[in-house]
Amino acid sequence: MIIYPAVDVKDGRCVRLAQGKFNDVTVYSDHPVDMALKWEKMGAEYLHVIDLDGARTGEPQNIAVISEMAVRLGIPVQVGGGIRSVETIEIVLCKGIQRVILGTSAVRDPDLVKAALKNFENNVVIGIDAKDGMVAIEGWAKTSEFTAVGFAKKMESLGAKTIIYTDIAKDGMLSGPNLKAMEEMVRSVKVDIIAAGGVSSLEDIKNLKEVGVAGAIIGKAIYTGDIDLKKAIEIAK
Questions:
Q1: S-S: 32 plus which of 14, 15, 44, 153, CB 3.0-4.6 Å?
Q2: How many CB atoms lie within 10 A of CB 187?
Q3: Rounded to an integer, what distance in angstroms lies between the CA atom of residue 159 and that of residue 164?
Q4: 3-state class of 224 per DSSP?
Q5: What is the predicted pLDDT for the residue at 140?
Q6: By residue range, what is the domain housing residue 58?
Q7: Residue 139 has what pLDDT?
């Protein structure tokens, strides 16, 4: 299981939101690249970056600083937030970024998913953010008509190999992941599931590993010190 430290970028700064609420922001650093380098130094094998401004506006807004991360780090970087066209995917991947995450665009535009998976294959990850079991879109501001599991099966049928599954109610709350939902997702599809939302202790890492997810994204807990990243990586391995 791979541990993905999360760096969320808003207005060029490294922040965390609670349950995706833009009015509940904590700034952890004015220098996201330095934060990314810190996580790499602690043993991170992959970095998870979200352009929060991009998620809201529909177009990447912090690509310069995220590209700098990708260039300076010796580990791969995956990026989500505002990536809603094949052209944007090409631009982002040309910046040294390893994988792009399609979230809202995957719900709105299945043809984009088909084209993206055809042209970029393993460089495309599907992000499924669930609110009460339903897929949320547009920076979590709206809920779609799809169930999370149903949508995951649809994405699998289109050729998706990796899905990031986030439980919004748990995100940034340090209350533990929704293990039941994660287990249901792992059982329902034959793709790699990366769990996100609520991971707040080393016990959570152990539990997620037992559930069978391929990876876990850790955000707030590594910033508050609730989780020691080095120890989390050891357990995951």
A1: 14
A2: 12
A3: 15
A4: helix
A5: 63
A6: 2-236
A7: 61
Catalytic residue chosen out of the listed positions 51, 129, 167, 204 = 129
Average pLDDT over residues 71-78: 97
Is 11 catalytic? The answer is no
CA distance 48 to 119: 22
3-state secondary structure 27-70: EEECCHHHHHHHHHHCCCCCEEEEEHHHHHHCCCCCHHHHHHHH
Residue 15 pairs with which residues in a beta bridge? 8, 27
- For 211-222, what is the mean pLDDT? 97
What are the phi and psi torsion angles at 216 (to 5°)?
-140, 135
Q: How far apart are the first and last CA of the chain?
A: 6
Domain count, the chain: 1
Q: What are the tens digits of pLDDT across the range 220-233?
A: 999 999 999 999 99
| Cα–Cα dist 216/166, whole Å | 10
Category of 147 on φ-ψ map: left (φ > 0), alpha (ψ -120 to 50) or beta: beta
Global pTM reads 0.93
Tokens of 3: 């541990």
- The answer to whether residue 8 is catalytic is yes
In one-letter notation, the amino acid at residue 93 is L
